[in-house]
Amino acid sequence: MSHWQTLYQEKLKSADEVASWVKDGDHVEYSPFVTIPWDLDAALARRKDELHKVFVRCTTLMWVPEVFKADPQGETFLLCDGSFSAVTRKLKSKGELYINPCLYHEAPMLYTRGVLHNEYLFLAATPMDKDGFFNLSTSASSHMDMLRARSGHQSNLKVVLEVNEALPTVQGDNYLHISELDAVVESSQPRKPMAIGTAEPTEIDAKIAQFILEEMTDGACLQLGIGGMPNLVGKMLAESSLKDLGCHSEMFVDAYMDLFNAGKLTNACKQQDIGKSVFTFAMGSEALYQFLDKNPSMRCMPVSYTNDPAVIARNRRVYSICSCLAVDLFGNVSSESVGFKQISGTGGQWDYHYASFHSEEGKGFLCMPSSKVTKDGTRVSNIVISHAPGTQITVSGNTTNYVVTEYGIVNLKGLTTWEKVEALVSIAHPDFRDELFRAAEQARIWRPQNKVI
């Protein structure tokens, strides 16, 4: 038996033993996205009646944690999500759950600077290799930075890996060594990463995607955000005549696999990480996870690298494509909430939208349908005179670059306030254009003499 195997046996614990270490008031953070510490979560949930006020942090929940099932009202476990998902929204409607928002590239700094702290990291990982290394599979996120901060503000942090032999090994800076760990738990039921489907694109999505496609050039470095429309852009690019596209992204999705298999994703024109697709987490189909397994052209990197605007902008022609919820006539964009109703989180949208403009020949696109139909059947505009009270602004008007609806695409950079009104109304749903002009005139940010559309 090698030294590393001996050390493994010394650190091997049951999930219940590790859960017994957690004390009142502790902060426990789980693996993000689709790699899940199933046994550790279940073991912690079994301690509901023994503990008080334990904070459990997650990132974009795609599953229902056992701690929530055991305690939906948060009397023992206070659950926080860094960015709401459809699952999180559903859980919020049933119990107590809160968002822990931030700019994604700053998330590690909250720990390295002592703003936030954890007592425990419960992470899913692949089995140990012969040299003592475990792989965090489809995500690096902020956890590598947390681990490296243990000599400072995170000195009390204990790192526990739940070994899951069904996880793919994804190349990058997402390996942990047995010597860095406090405990290892072997999963009682190895499970593959959760397969996540993408909503079928609508006719409106296709129109928006076509506007963006017309802006694309050979050698573009792509960031595709969450949702059906960004994925559709990727699939349309795979069928286009464009070539030598690159990937430097927060998320790696099926559309990138389609681009790779079509010979379009070469990463040959990037200025850094040439030949490599760079991302901090992957989420998609089971086929995507198989594609990622031991693929040497992949680099799963910490979010402090993938989402750092300065790092992103080193590549030329960065094209960031993200969905949003609403835009006001000053160009302020919300992708997170409608009033006080939480929909999503900031995530990396600001990081990439800002960075794309600072990339040579780069462009940032914020996309949405021009209108929506509410539950009572009323159609309302997604381009608004002002956001509802409580609405969180994801991208400020001074930062907003391109806005796209099914009626067109406009670049807001450098425009006066009245020119922004003109531009945004031009891509609003026709039923609301006159109403928006009247509201803008009443607010004294536009007047009829300026009208050029």
Kindly describe this structure.
With 453 residues, this protein is α/β, with parallel strands linked by helices. The strands form 8 sheets. It has a 7-stranded parallel beta sheet, covered by helices on one side. It has a 6-stranded mixed beta sheet with strand order 11-10-16-21-25-26, with helices on both faces. Helix 8 (203-213) packs across helix 9 and helix 15 runs antiparallel to helix 16 (433-442). The longest helix has 11 residues, at 203-213. The radius of gyration is 23 Å and the shape is globular. The mean pLDDT is 94.
Largest sheet: 7 strands, parallel
Strand content: 15-25%
Overall geometric form:
globular
Helical fraction equals 25-40%
Number of helices: 16
Mean pLDDT across the residues is 94
Can you give me a brief rundown of this structure?
The protein has 453 residues and is of the alpha/beta class.
Protein traits:
alpha/beta, seven-stranded parallel sheet, six-stranded mixed sheet, 16 helices
Topology of this protein?
Elements: H1 3-11, H2 15-19, E1 27-30, H3 38-45, E2 54-58, H4 66-70, E3 77-81, H5 86-94, E4 97-99, H6 107-112, E5 120-125, E6 133-135, H7 143-148, E7 158-163, E8 175-177, E9 183-186, H8 203-213, E10 221-224, H9 228-238, E11 246-247, E12 251-252, H10 254-261, E13 277-279, E14 281-282, H11 286-292, E15 298-300, H12 303-306, H13 309-312, E16 318-323, E17 326-328, E18 333-334, E19 337-338, E20 341-342, H14 349-358, E21 363-367, E22 371-373, E23 379-381, E24 383-384, E25 402-405, E26 408-411, H15 417-426, H16 433-442
Parallel strand pairs: 1-2, 1-5, 2-3, 3-4, 5-7, 7-9, 10-11, 10-16, 12-14, 13-15, 16-21, 17-24, 21-25
Antiparallel strand pairs: 6-8, 17-18, 19-20, 22-23, 25-26
